[in-house]
Amino acid sequence: MADKVNIFWFRRDLRLDDNVGFYKALHGKYPVLPVFIFDTEILNELPEDDARVTFIFLTLQNMRKELQNHGSSIAMYHGAPSEVFKTITSEFDVQNVITNHDYEPYANKRDSEVKNQLSEKEIGFYTYKDQVVFEKEEVVKADGDPYVVYTPYMKTWKSKFNADEDLRIYYTSQHLDNLLQHSRLPNLSLSDMGFKKSSIDIPDYDVTPTTIQKYEKTRNFPAQDATSHLGPHLRFGTVSIRKIVKKAIAEKNEVFWQELIWREFFMQILWHFPHTVDTAFRKKYDRVEWRNHKTDFQKWKEGKTGYPLVDAGMRQLNTSGYMHNRVRMLVASFLCKHLLIDWRWGEAYFAEKLLDYELSSNVGNWQWAAGSGVDAAPYFRIFNPTTQIDKFDSDKKYIKKWVEEYDTDAYPEKMVDHKEARERALSTYKKAVS
User: Fold this and answer.
1) What is the mean pLDDT of residues 187-194?
2) Distances from the Cα of 341 to the Cα of 181, 242, 375, 396, angstroms
3) What is the rounded average pLDDT of the residues 374-390?
4) Which residue among 47, 284, 329, 398 is buried most deeply as judged by most CB within 10 Å?
5) Does 30 carry a binding-site annotation?
6) Phi and psi at residue 360, in whole multiples of 5°?
């Protein structure tokens, strides 16, 4: 067996610099073996050309190349993490496994199983905070209860925030000599895992001073495509949250900064209330009698509802894996209120399609649209999908880009009348929650 090693397990932190767990591992007593596991528990649910899998794979290959310049690499495995660690610990004399915190219910279960398995072999398992500024119980009410409304959470978040401490950069480049000197570690191809390269690319993020400074003026207009596209990069950790918060503060943009805090608000909600993945935070909303009409759901998915802004959003999603945030609110409201289809159906479809899919934010925003979540919109707030065009796409530029047959005889008729659908939704919701 080889010399003693510590393992650093890459997961939602696909970068070499400013990575807390990786930094801690490199400062340890033993050489570091970097690993990544393509988890079959997750991958088995995905289509063979999933763009996120391609993005992760290509990012890892670039990281491997960089580490090979230091005589090392990243060992890549495909399987259930518990089984993979049996293989790793049989091939290497592992002393400790180091990784960064993950907060989702499945991740908690997975990490608990791996920790217990390793402890039987007297191998340590250590995790660190990396993907957020504040986590778990770090921002709570005076009595220790979690916040369930964003604004007071945000104010407490800011009152606790100390840039010098909370935005420390964990530089690793000077410590890469503590990697295991082994450049031919196990590698994989997409085809080895039953995948193929996706035709959809995840775009680079844009956090230039101009983008941040103009953020609140331009973010609501989908035709301008003026948002940062940070979502997938924060989701997979190709960029450090600390560096992004630093940029927001440097540009003195409160709105941009507060969007980053929204992300952490939903993450702590999921941590404290994991049941909200599939049940309403406000229990009475689970009494809503959804129509769940499969043909209507299919029309919504395909962007053939007869409401142009809704259809443009869904077609953008299906084509690119992205949808403008303003339009996400509208299509979600339309599904839940106009069609009376369960928010969980929409959440699952977004999970399948969104490049920046983040469980906590997706669940939080879908429950907001359905009126069933924390800090939710009241059930009687129902977006008018026609007047939304006047507000946010008045020249129809966004609509015309994604709905080619718009304003022709080929465009479908409205599948529901707005006024009638609104009255039906109000009646159904009132019956459930009163």
Assistant:
1) 96
2) 55, 38, 21, 27
3) 88
4) 398
5) no
6) -65, -45
pLDDT > 90? residue 79: yes
Rounded to the nearest 10°, the torsion over CA 304, 305, 306, 312 is: -60
Decide if 139 contacts 156 (C-beta within 8 A). yes
Residue 266 assigned to a binding site: yes
Length of the chain in terms of residues written: 434
**C-alpha to C-alpha distance for 358 and 378, rounded to whole angstroms:** 24
Cα separation, 210 vs 120, in Å, equals: 53
* 249: nearest Cα among 212, 206, 214: 212
Q: What percent of the chain has pLDDT over 70?
A: 99
The DSSP element (H or E) to which 99 belongs, if any, is: strand 93-100
Name the helix (H) or strand (E) containing 315. helix 308-320
* Residue for token pair 């080895």: 192
- Residue 261 annotated as lining a ligand binding site: yes
Report how far residue 164's alpha carbon sits from residue 176's, in angstroms, rounded to the nearest whole number: 25
The answer to whether the annotation marks 264 as part of a ligand binding site is yes
Domains along the chain with CATH numbers: 1-130 (3.40.50.620), 132-168+207-272 (1.25.40.80), 277-433 (1.10.579.10)
pLDDT, residue 2, reads: 64
